[in-house]
Structure formats: structure tokens, C-alpha cells
């Protein structure tokens, strides 16, 4: 019990008969006994949406309510994801009026529109008048996130980096993925790069805009159409960048780069970096897909035409300072933590200031002379020479450091042919030449380059890259039963359109010929390609041979020529196909493709898988090998040589294990019998007849 005492003062006036005034004060003391105050939350927890805006919490008191009262309130973040003062606002005091047994505490919930987990805070009650807190002294409040779903959006791995085969009119489709695929949302995009929108390319999308995903839609596409502007230009790039349109949009793999090589006035184009070439490999274990390094599929993603740098490093260190490290206009800055590095775009190399300003191909000329310099990308181990003058030593570029140079070549009167010279008037002249970059010293392939250079005495230069086709024909091809049936193996040759090869067909270097070897499913268990090679059809010491398939698999060094490797089409073990990209040896007018196949006679156990480690044959398995070759004539600037199909047939029986055991046992028995016979023979020869002496 609590005793409370209060006092009241009264002033009284009393008049006597003499009209005198007396003043006195009466102090009245009063007291009463009241119950102790008890305070409690009405509930121990509450859950509400972040967008609710407010929460009303009831606090009760028991005991005497005759007098006003107040309690203290504290709020702290709690739980797995504690809320903070940025998420709520709580008064520090709750008051009770006289005769009031409960009061409401109004809490403000702050809706920040950020996508975040549910958050929690705890209210703590305490008395400031000696009262007690019971039974509920704390209350837990959970704020549920009801902002929009968080989406991850980015380019698909096959859309982050593309090298186009040429500048011809073509369509490029970029795929943008979204996860999850529920609800509606959008992502922004913008085009940039050296290529000009509307001149070098167009798109079904505007130059800047957004992609809108409908409910259930996981992918969107951006379609780009390449425009052949007929201008002689350097390699150009199209860059498409994705951007977030809201706090619930997380953009990953935000950039796609497309490179457009130029083929103006030069025919089929090769690019200045192609991972099919020798010495132009992908870094950081990236895979080579159609000549381009697949950097986007690496984790974390890498950038650059050869996957040199991590995308994340482009916004690190000195590359992210203001101003950032200056690599020049033709480079990407990246910082691995040890300082800025400059990665030059395909067409450039570094100058003495570490900036990417020097073109890979340079030329200068006067009316009398021309100097050409080339710096191929990667590790170059091929040859560079004036076109059509491969065999003339003075027409080959000379290596100087990383450069290959042809200095002060006469425009007229040299053994490398005359340049094309145009008189511009006023003492100015335009000079044109063409040189070849071949990435192998023994063969020409589709991935070699023809460089057309043009300069004039006013020091203006134009350079374009391209490819001059070499024709290969099948004239005079001997065919048996229509498809070249060779003994028990059928050979079918088709071009890249799937049409059967005929004697009148013409092929360019780089064109595809698919060879399909098959056996009868009624007579044989299966077939695999053991070995495949191409050679110049010459005898030693002038022979040149390149293995294409060894031990059933594509030889790692022949990615220039074989793609794809040998497979069972449609899992048909009775056929095997391999695609050959036409090439030519530099010193030969013929190319011969040779095959060795294995035919499984009784069981397909050893023919079921084409490219794998050889497995032990099943008991009773028998096989036979078959050799054949196809000879093609290279008729570009060479005399015509009839083309033919040659065949040989070598049969090798592989006996079952029991048969081998029987033969071995019989051999042992025969050997023992021979030894016994030999011993008896020796004994009979060396034995002397006995004589009687008298």
C-alpha cells in the first residue's frame, strides 16, 4: 500500500461587533492509501507491412487510476535483420490521464522503397514512478518488406562478345535474361561504340530505351542489323549497355560488345584477332566459340577480345578515380590492385606513353616508295608478304621486335610487282598495294588476312582487311555408286549447304566439306574414325602432312581446319561424320585427305563412342580397319590436275580372348614337340656304334 498526503490552504474572514477583521489560515491535511501501479504491453508481438506507415501499440495499467501517470519507452533493433532508426520512429514516453487504464503508443513506420529482407525491432517498457512492469515488459515488432520483387537482369553468356565474319548485311540478336520471371519489370539499354547508329547498323530498338518484361517472360532480345556502307574503314565496335530502372533491378553482365570487321572492296573478311588461329588463343581458360573467345561465361566475367581482364577490375583503383587513368581513346583501363593497365582494342597497340594510339597496320609513301608495317595480335609465327609474291624473298616482311616491316619498297620496278599509282594533280599521288598475313608457314586457311593499303603523298591513309578466295575444285572426281562407295564403307561428301559434292562444284578456302563414312547396319555393328590427315600428295622429302584426327579425336593443333570433329550423326553408330575446312599448302597444287576407320563386325562396344579413351573390347568382338583418301585439285593460278578418289583396304582381324588362349596353347604344344624331336635327332647323330675287340 502507498500512503499519499496532500494539503489544502483556506483563508477565512471573520467580522466582530466592532467591525474588526481577523484573518486566519486553516491548513487541512488529508491522506489516502492507493494500490501500487502496474504497467504492461497488451501484446508481446506485432507484424505489419512496411507500407502500412504506422503501428498503434496499447499499454495497460492496473491499480489505482485516480492519478495521471507516464511510462518510458525504448526501442532497439533485434533479430536476424535488425531494424534501425531509418525504419521506424518511436515516442520515448507514454502518458495516462486520470482514470485512464490504457493508452496508445503511435509508432511511425518509414517506407524506404528499398528491396530488403524483413526487419525487426523490440519495444522495452519501464516505469518512472516506482511502478512495476508485468506481465509483458517487451514487445517485438516485425516489418515485412512489401517492395517490388528484386530482379537480376543481364546479357546471356553468348551475347556478351561477338566478332562478326564480315560487314555484309546480317542480323545480330542479343539475348537479355531476367530472374525470376514473375511480375512485370523493365531494364534500360543504350547503344555506343565506334560504329555509327543508322549508318553502320540499325536496330528494332531505338538508340536508347528500355526492354519491358511481361509476367512469365524470362528473356528479351535486341535485334541489330548490320549495314554495309561500302566505305573503307577500320574495325568498328557496337557496345550495348544495360542500366537499372529501379532499386529492385540488379543488372549483371551489363555490357555486350560486337566487332564489325571491314571487307569493303576486298571480298571475304578475316578479323585481326581470331582464336582459331595459331598464336591467338583465349586467356584465363576461356573457350573459343566460332573464332571469338567466350569471356562472358567465365565466373567472374572477363573482358577483352582474348579475355585478359576481369570486368570488375575496370572500375577498380586508378581506373575509377576522377579523372581516371588515361589509356587513350582505343583502350580499356583495368586495375588488379597493383596499378592501372591499358588493354588495347583489336586494331591498336601501345605507344611510348602506354596509350593505345598506334594502329596495328601502318603505311607511308612517296611517289617512288612505300613503307608498310604490321603488328599481328597474339604470338605470331607465320609470314607476311606482298600478295602473289610469296616465293620472292625480297617481298617478305622482315621481323623487327614485335613488328614486321617492308621498308622503302619501290612502287615501280621491284620484283614484287608494281603498285597502283593514281595522279591526283598538284604533285600529289595515291599509291595502293596489297599484302598477305598468313598465320601458318606451310598452309593458307580461311583465317589468314589480306591487307589493302592506300596512301597518298598528303599523308592520308586508308587500310582495309579482307580475304582473297582461293578456288578448289573436284573436277574429274571418280565416284563409285554415286556416293563413292569404297569396299564395305560408303563415303558421302556434302558441301556446307548439305548438297552432295559433284565434279563441277567449286570451293573457296575456308568452305566446309563434310565427309560421312558409313557401313550397312544389317551387316556390321558400327564404325569409328581412328585417324584423319591432310597432305600435299608428294613423296619424301617433299611431303607435307598435317594430322587432323588422332586416336579418334580432333588434334588440338588443327582447329583451323576441322570443325566440328568426328561424331556419330544422330547417335547412329553405323556412321561417322567430320567437317573439313578447305585449305591449301603453299607449295602444292593438290591436297589429299586420308582416313582410317575401324569397323566393328560383331559388337559395337568399341564403336559406340567416337572421341574417348580406347576401351577394352568385349569378348568375341572383331573389327576391321579401312583406309581411303580423297584428292582435291587446287586450281587457283595452277595447272589443272584431274582429281580422283583412291582406295586401299587393309583388313586386320582381332580375335577373341578364348581364341587367343587356344592358339597360344597349341603353339606351346608344338614348340615342346619340336624340341623333343630336335633332342632325339641330336642324340641319334652323336651316338657312336659299339665295336667288339678280340
Tell me what the structure shows.
The structure is a single chain. With 694 residues, the chain is mostly beta strands. The protein has 7 domains: 38-144, Sandwich (Immunoglobulin-like); 148-271, Sandwich (Immunoglobulin-like); 273-306, no CATH class; 308-358, no CATH class; 360-466, no CATH class; 471-648, Immunoglobulin-like (Sandwich); 662-686. Strands 41, 44, 46, 47, 48, 51, 52 and 53 form an 8-stranded antiparallel beta sheet that branches. A 5-stranded mixed beta sheet has the order 7-9-5-3-11, with no helix packed on it. The protein has a 5-stranded mixed beta sheet with strand order 4-12-10-6-8, with no helix packed on it. The longest helix has 30 residues, at 657-686. The protein is extended, with a radius of gyration of 45 Å.
* Helix content class: under 10%
How many DSSP-defined strands? 53
Query: So what's the CATH class of the largest domain?
Result: Mainly Beta
Indicate the overall shape: extended
Based on the structure given, which CATH architecture of the largest domain is correct? Answer: Sandwich
Structural class: mainly beta
> What do the pLDDT scores average to?
76
CATH topology of the largest domain: Immunoglobulin-like
Largest sheet: 8 strands, antiparallel
Query: Unreliable segments (pLDDT under 50, ≥5 consecutive)?
Result: 1-34, 262-271, 465-486, 614-620, 636-662, 690-694
Strand content: 35-45%
Number of helices: 1
Q: How many separate structural domains?
A: 7
Amino acid at each position: 500500500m502507498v500512503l499519499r498526503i496532500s494539503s489544502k490552504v483556506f483563508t477565512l474572514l471573520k467580522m466582530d461587533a466592532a467591525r474588526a477583521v481577523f484573518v486566519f489560515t486553516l491548513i487541512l491535511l488529508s491522506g489516502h492509501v492507493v494500490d501500487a501501479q502496474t504497467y504492461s504491453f497488451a501484446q508481446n508481438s506485432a507484424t505489419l507491412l512496411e507500407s502500412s506507415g504506422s503501428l498503434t501499440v496499447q499499454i495497460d495499467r492496473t491499480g489505482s487510476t485516480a492519478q495521471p501517470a507516464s511510462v518510458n519507452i525504448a526501442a532497439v533493433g533485434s533479430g536476424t535483420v535488425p531494424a534501425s532508426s531509418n525504419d521506424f520512429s518511436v515516442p520515448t514516453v507514454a502518458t495516462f490521464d486520470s482514470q485512464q487504464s490504457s493508452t496508445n503508443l503511435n509508432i511511425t513506420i518509414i517506407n524506404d522503397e528499398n528491396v530488403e529482407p524483413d526487419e525487426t525491432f523490440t519495444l522495452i517498457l519501464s516505469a518512472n514512478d516506482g511502478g512495476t512492469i508485468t506481465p509483458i515488459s517487451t514487445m517485438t515488432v516485425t516489418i515485412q518488406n512489401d517492395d517490388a520483387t528484386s530482379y537480376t537482369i543481364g546479357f546471356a553468356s553468348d551475347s556478351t562478345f561477338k566478332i562478326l565474319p564480315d560487314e555484309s548485311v546480317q542480323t545480330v540478336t542479343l539475348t537479355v535474361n531476367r530472374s525470376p520471371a514473375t511480375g512485370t519489370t523493365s531494364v534500360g539499354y543504350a547503344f555506343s561504340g565506334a560504329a555509327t547508329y543508322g549508318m553502320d547498323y540499325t536496330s528494332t530498338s531505338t538508340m536508347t530505351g528500355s526492354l519491358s518484361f511481361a509476367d512469365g517472360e524470362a528473356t528479351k532480345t535486341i535485334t541489330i542489323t548490320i549495314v554495309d556502307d561500302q566505305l573503307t574503314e577500320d574495325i568498328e565496335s557496337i557496345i550495348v549497355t544495360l542500366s537499372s530502372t529501379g532499386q529492385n533491378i540488379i543488372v549483371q553482365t551489363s555490357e555486350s560488345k560486337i566487332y564489325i570487321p571491314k571487307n569493303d572492296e576486298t571480298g571475304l573478311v578475316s578479323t585481326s584477332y581470331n582464336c582459331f588461329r595459331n598464336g591467338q588463343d583465349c586467356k584465363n581458360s576461356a573457350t573459343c566459340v566460332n573464332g571469338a573467345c567466350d569471356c562472358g561465361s567465365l565466373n567472374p566475367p572477363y573482358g577483352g577480345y582474348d579475355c585478359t581482364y576481369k570486368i570488375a577490375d575496370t572500375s577498380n583503383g586508378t581506373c575509377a578515380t576522377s579523372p581516371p587513368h588515361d589509356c587513350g581513346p582505343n583502350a580499356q583501363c583495368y586495375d588488379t590492385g597493383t596499378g592501372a593497365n591499358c588493354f588495347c582494342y583489336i586494331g591498336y597497340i601501345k605507344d611510348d606513353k602506354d596509350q593505345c594510339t598506334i594502329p596495328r597496320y601502318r603505311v607511308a609513301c612517296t611517289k617512288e616508295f612505300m613503307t608498310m608495317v604490321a603488328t599481328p595480335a597474339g604470338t605470331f609465327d607465320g609470314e607476311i608478304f606482298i600478295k602473289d609474291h610469296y616465293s620472292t624473298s625480297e617481298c617478305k616482311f622482315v621481323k623487327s621486335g614485335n613488328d614486321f616491316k617492308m621498308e622503302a619498297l619501290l612502287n615501280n620496278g621491284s620484283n614484287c610487282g608494281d603498285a597502283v599509282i593514281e595522279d591526283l594533280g598538284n604533285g600529289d599521288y595515291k599509291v595502293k598495294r596489297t599484302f598477305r598475313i598468313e598465320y601458318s608457314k606451310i598452309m593458307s586457311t580461311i583465317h589468314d588476312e589480306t591487307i589493302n593499303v592506300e596512301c597518298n603523298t598528303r599523308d592520308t591513309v586508308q587500310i582495309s582487311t579482307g580475304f582473297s578466295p582461293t578456288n578448289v575444285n573436284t573436277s574429274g572426281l571418280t565416284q563409285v555408286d554415286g556416293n563413292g562407295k569404297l569396299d564395305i564403307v560408303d563415303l558421302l561428301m556434302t558441301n556446307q549447304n548439305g548438297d552432295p559434292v559433284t565434279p563441277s562444284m567449286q570451293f573457296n578456302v575456308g568452305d566446309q566439306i563434310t565427309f560421312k563414312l558409313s557401313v550397312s547396319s544389317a551387316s556390321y555393328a558400327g564404325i569409328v574414325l581412328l585417324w584423319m590427315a591432310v597432305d600435299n600428295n608428294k613423296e619424301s622429302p617433299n611431303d607435307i602432312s598435317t594430322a587432323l584426327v588422332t586416336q579418334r579425336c580432333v588434334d588440338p593443333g588443327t582447329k583451323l581446319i576441322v570443325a566440328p570433329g568426328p561424331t556419330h550423326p544422330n547417335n547412329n553408330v553405323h556412321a561417322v561424320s567430320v567437317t573439313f575446312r578447305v585449305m591449301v599448302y603453299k607449295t602444292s597444287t593438290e591436297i589429299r585427305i586420308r582416313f582410317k576407320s575401324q569397323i566393328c563386325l560383331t559388337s559395337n562396344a568399341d564403336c559406340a563412342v567416337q572421341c574417348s579413351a580406347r576401351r577394352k573390347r568385349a569378348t568375341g568382338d572383331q573389327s576391321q580397319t579401312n583406309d581411303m583418301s580423297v584428292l582435291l585439285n587446287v586450281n587457283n593460278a595452277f595447272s589443272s590436275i584431274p582429281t580422283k578418289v583412291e582406295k586401299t583396304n587393309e583388313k586386320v582381324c582381332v580375335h577373341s580372348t578364348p581364341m587367343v588362349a587356344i592358339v597360344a596353347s597349341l603353339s606351346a604344344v608344338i614348340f615342346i614337340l619340336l624340341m623333343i624331336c630336335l633332342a632325339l635327332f641330336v642324340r641319334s647323330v652323336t651316338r657312336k656304334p659299339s665295336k667288339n675287340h678280340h
